[in-house]
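Researcher: Structure for this, please.
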Amino acid sequence: MSLDGRHDYVIGKLLEGFPDLEEVLARQAMKRAEMCEQVDAFFTADGPKVILFVYQGSTVVQEDGTKLIDSKGGKQLALASPADVKVADQCMYFVRTAKKDVAVASVENDLVSGSVSKNALETFQVMVSDMYVPFLGQNGNWALKAEDQNKEWKDEFIGNATKFGSALSESVTSLQKGIELRKPEDKYLDSMELKNSSFNKAASDEEMAAYFEAIMESWCADVEAILNEDSKGRVESEDAGINDELDYWRTRMARFNSITEQLKSKECKLVLGVANASRSKALRGDVGKKGWKQLDMEITDAANIAKDNVKYLTMLDKSLEPLYQGTVQATIDALPALMNNFKLMHTIARYYNSAERMTPLFQKVTNQMIGCCKRQL
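Model: Predicted structure, C-alpha cell format:
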C-alpha cells in the first residue's frame, strides 16, 4: 500500500502523541491492508468522521466478556474501537472537519487531532472549572439575550456551569479515594477458569486456599472501613451548605458503585468462587468480625441509601437555586417549596426519617441563607 502526504501527516501526529512509537513501526502498521483501507475511507467525504488509534498490547476478551490488555507480545499500533478495544493509557483521535475529501494540500486544515488519557474525567474537570468558568465570568460580551436579561441569564448559566464543575470534581475525588479490591496475581488468572472444577481444585490446595482467603479478608477490612465512615461522623466546615451534603452522598454512591462493578470482574469472581468452594472463614466471619456475606448485604443496603439520598437531594435543586444565585427576596419566596420538599424527604426517605438527621440539613440551609445575605450587602 502506498502512502501520501495525508498519511505522513497522521503518522507525524501519532509520533508526537506516542513518544515511544518508532517511525518505521508506524509506517509498517499504516501500510497494512486493513489499517490503510480504514484510514483511506476516513479521508473521503462519505467515510467515518472520526478515527482512533492506540499504541499498546493487544486486547483479549475473556469468556465472561472482560477485556484485558495482553502486553506479552509488546506494543502495537492499532485502530481502536470502543466496543472491541480496551484503552490502557492513551488513545489518539483524528476528526475530519471538512465536508469534502481530505486533500494533501489542505490536510492540516481538514483534520483535527488530539489525545485522551485514562485520566480523561480529571482533564475535563480542570477545563470546566479552571478555564471555561473563569473565562465566562470575566468576559461580559458572550451572552446573546436582550440587554436587560443578560446579567440574570449569565449568572444562572455560570452558576450551573460551576455546579457541573463541582460535580465533576467530586466524581474525580471519589475515583481517586475509592478503594480497589485486591486482585489475585496474573498467574492465577491465566491458569484458572471460572468453573466449579477449577474452584474445587484450588480449594483442595491448602496454600492456594489460604492465598485466596487472605485476599477476601483484605476485602472485608477495606469495605467495613467505608461502611463505618458515616457512623463515625463527618468533618465539615461551619459554613457547609446543602450542595456539600449532595456532594457527600454522590461520592459515597460512586464508591459503592465502584465496588459493585469490581465484583463483576473475572478476578473478583475467581476469589469468590474459590472462597465458596473452600468454605472460607472470611465468608461467614468470626466472633466480633463480620464476614463477606454480611458485608455484601450491607454494601447493597448502603448503596441503595446513598442512591435514594442523591435522588431526594437532587429534587431540592430548583428550590435551592435562589440561595446560591438569587436575591434575598427570591430566597424568601423559595422557602415554602423548600420546606415542602423537606417534609416529603422526612416522610419517605429511609435515611432522613429522624430529627437527628434532618437537623444538619436545616443548619446547612441556614448557612446558605446567611451566605446569600452576605452577597447582597
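Researcher: Any notable elements?
Model: The CA atoms of residues 60 and 68 lie 5 Å apart. Confidence is low (pLDDT under 50) at residues 64-71.
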